[in-house]
Amino acid sequence: MTSTLLYHHLLLSVILLLHAPLCPAAAGGSWSVLLPSIGISAMHMQLLPNDRVVMYDRTDFGISNISLPNGKCRPNSTDCSAHSVEYDVGSNTIRPLMVLTNVWCSSGTLMPDGSLVQTGGWADGYRRVRIYKSCATCDWQEISNGLNQQRWYATNHLLPDGRQIIIGGRQAFNYEFYPKMSATENSPSFPFLVQTNDPNVENNLYPFVFLYPDGNLTKLSRPTRQCPAGNQGTTRALALRYYSL
Ligand SMILES: *[C@@H]1O[C@H](CO)[C@@H](O)[C@H](O)[C@H]1NC(C)=O
Ligand SMILES: *[C@@H]1O[C@H](CO)[C@@H](O)[C@H](O)[C@H]1NC(C)=O
Ligand SMILES: *[C@@H]1O[C@H](CO)[C@@H](O)[C@H](O)[C@H]1NC(C)=O
């Protein structure tokens, strides 16, 4: 399919989406407050397959309003408040979690086993891979240099092979995968991110990325070029439209 056709196909999808009723009247939905506070600001949140919602906030903005359990504090820190919580939809309760590094404007996606793999962030979080696999007592696991590159405002997408691709981020004009196939797997450059980066504006952060049923990846950006995005010959990135924050 050419980019023009694909663009029209996407455009049509967007138009159809716009014409779909946002909230079907028949459902009679309504909002209600379930808890007065969850203790943190939910800068990021992810619904998990077991009806829990994991939420997390930056760690460098002072203490939160919920303490870590059992007098725990973050290592090398006087901050003993939690910057992540898990909400249990069934019991309407919150459980504080300990995220170790700064998740400010990080990114992530669910893996096939239902764990959340969450990457990058700010400062001590730049190259982190964090894994949260929900259970009654589980907490975040962090891998220090799990990413090859520092990533702040990157985009993650699950691929058909069960790995995730992690694309871009501030001054990271490349992409990589998690988990890696080998210790030497590198981060191929993605020149399109350079070409769509306006100096001092940083308007290609958090790129919109979609996976097609045929295994192709689409990054929404200017209709300019197609370039390979996989190291197995099965994944291709198609640059379509520019997204600006
Ligand atoms: C959370 O905020 C409430 C209301 O301001 C306060 O009473 C409570 O002590 C705070 N809890 C923590 C752990 O900061
Ligand atoms: C705590 O600080 C020490 C000394 O700087 C360092 O060796 C250690 O890795 C730090 N621990 C963590 C979890 O950051
Ligand atoms: C997906 O990639 C394959 C292989 O490059 C290509 O033949 C096909 O046209 C692509 N599909 C779309 C929708 O771009």
Automatic annotation (TrEMBL):
Entry keywords, A to Z: Signal
InterPro entries xrefs: Gal_Oxase/kelch_b-propeller, Gal_Oxidase_central_sf, Glyoxal_oxidase_N
One term under GO cellular component: plant-type cell wall
GO terms classed as biological process: cell wall modification; cell-cell adhesion; mucilage extrusion from seed coat
Gene Ontology molecular-function annotations: galactose oxidase activity
Residue ranges of domain Glyoxal oxidase N-terminal in the record: 43-217
Signal peptide annotation: 1-25
Cross-referenced PANTHER family: GALACTOSE OXIDASE (PTHR32208:SF79), SECRETED PROTEIN-RELATED (PTHR32208)
Protein name as catalogued: Putative galactose oxidase/kelch, beta-propeller, Galactose oxidase, beta-propeller
